[in-house]
Amino acid sequence: MRRFGRGRFGQHGFAFRRRGARRRRCASTLADAPAGQRVCLRGFSSSLPAERLSHLLAYGLAPGRWVRVIQHEPVTVVQVEHSELALENDLARQIEVTPLDGSPQNS
Q: Which residues have CB under 8 Å from 101's CB, separation 6+?
């Protein structure tokens, strides 16, 4: 059984997308998800520094976790359980997600 395609695995066992690798059609980045949509975190860009990755994991942003996108301007804000986190837009572009089918676009 092959997990996570051909991506590399980081120090925490999560898959990273290789630079230049083609993305799956169903996956996009957190910055691409419309406000109000629930998404599942799938992984992180391989260019994300380990220090930033450890901060994201400490705040509960780990692969397999569902989050709701609240807004994108001036920064991307997501709801993780009962907390809201503000992320810089360039950081949101380094977080890969899959949208939850049937999720309301504006709620």
A: none
Instruction: Let me know if 26 is exposed, middle or buried by CB neighbors in 10 A (0-12, 13-18, 19+).
Output: exposed
On whether residue 104 sits in a domain, the answer given is no
In a domain, 3, yes or no: no
Q: Is residue 107 in a domain?
A: no
pLDDT digits (tens, 9 = 90+) for 21-35: 444 445 599 999 999
Compute CA distances 16 → 13, 31, 77, 91, 94, whole Å. 9, 17, 23, 15, 10
**The domain that contains 34 carries what CATH number?**
2.30.30.90
The residue range of the domain holding 27 is: 8-99
Domain count, the chain: 1
Whole-structure pTM value: 0.69
Condensed to tens digits (0 to 9), the pLDDT of residues 23-78 reads 444 559 999 999 999 999 999 999 999 999 999 999 999 999 999 999 999 999 99
